[in-house]
Amino acid sequence: MDEFFDIVLNVQVIAVAALAFGAVAGLGGAVAAYINQRRNLLTSRLHGQQRSEAFRPEPSSTAFSEFLARLGAKLGAGSGAEAMYTRLLRAGFQNRNAVAVFLATKFLFFLGALLILVPVVVVLDVTFAMGLMIAAFGAGFVFILPNLYVDAVAKRRSHEVRMHLPDMVDLLEVCVSGGMGLDQAWNAVAQEIRQVSPLLADEMALTTLEMQLGEDRGVAMRRMADRTGADELNSMVSTLVQSQRFGTSVSQALRVFAENMRELRSTRAEESAETMSVKMLFPMILFIFPVVAIVAVGPAIISALETFAQMD
Q1: What is the C-alpha to C-alpha distance for residues 201 and 224, in angstroms, rounded to an integer?
Q2: Does residue 228 share a domain with residue 117?
Q3: Residue-number span of the structural domain to which 6 is assigned
Q4: What is the DSSP letter of 53?
Q5: HSE-up of 78 (CA within 13 Å, CB side)?
Q6: Same structural domain, 108 and 187
């Protein structure tokens, strides 16, 4: 009987090791693929080989993605489906099955974490309550990892759009001042800014497509603001709508708006620089101050202990 339990224990240890190796290998492969993709993108930009298409071709659905969509549809998002779709949309996931795939991914992450943590808890030989707590906290953390990833991607996309929006408005103002119509200037700017920010160029191209399909310009631009999470686009839309309604110069309105955007970007940079000292305080306290304290006080403590030992 003892030999049987030993065999089971060895199998569990091997399974945990194999799962850990697979997780590390998968994570390393994903990081390597991402780095390779970024390197190829930078190389294509340097050699002037940036793609001229408005959008990246949507990958064909695979059997696994269809399985995730069916599983997510059975799980259901409830009343929060619309808010969840908005979050995924701002992260760049525009597929109609994005919510279902997202829910299925979270469920599989949770299930996989339980399958990994349960053998680990058995190997650690802890109490039932402690093992249950470890499995619950570990699976719960893995369950929210997709949310953290989506929020991080959405924040990065929004930051990129905000960084390049003043340049886009400047180009738009130059084109309009040169005699182009607003729609023609929008298309020209979308093509020119692609070398700097493909993300902003894709969003502008999608807005152009919506306008060509009959959508109102203001509504299409506001949808672009919702997709990117950049509230400044709503302000630009309001400026353009009011300028056309009251018959004022569109180029002058864009010039004033671009100046305000540059001032806002400078203000944000100054605020970030001012808060840097506060942000650096926590790593200094956690990592630098203990080392300095050990180096400064350590010899004195050792000498005091040796003195007390001699006195005894």
Answers
A1: 11
A2: no
A3: 2-34+60-159
A4: S
A5: 1
A6: no
Residues in the chain: 312
pLDDT digits (tens, 9 = 90+) for 218-267: 788 888 888 888 777 778 878 877 887 777 788 888 888 888 878 887 88
> 83-118 pLDDT, tens per residue?
787 888 888 887 777 788 888 888 888 888 888 887
Contact between residue 122 and residue 85 where contact means Cβ atoms under 8 Å apart: no
Is 287 domain-assigned?
A: no
281 lies in some domain: no
**Cα distance between residue 178 and residue 194, in whole Å:** 21
Question: CB-based contacts of 223: which residues, under 8 Å, 6+ apart?
Answer: 207, 210
Backbone angles phi, psi at 148, to 5 degrees: -65, -40
- The rounded distance, in Å, linking the Cα atoms of 69 and 66 is 5
And the tokens for 211?
């306008």
Note whether 121 and 260 are same-domain residues. Answer: no
Instruction: Name the phi and psi angles at 275, rounded to 5.
Output: -85, -5
Question: Do 154 and 178 belong to one domain?
Answer: no
Q: Is residue 217 part of a domain?
A: yes
User: Closest Cα partner for 174 from 184, 161, 163, 185?
Assistant: 185
How many domains does one find in the chain?
2
Instruction: Specify if 180 maps to a domain.
Output: yes
- pTM greater than the 0.85 cutoff: no
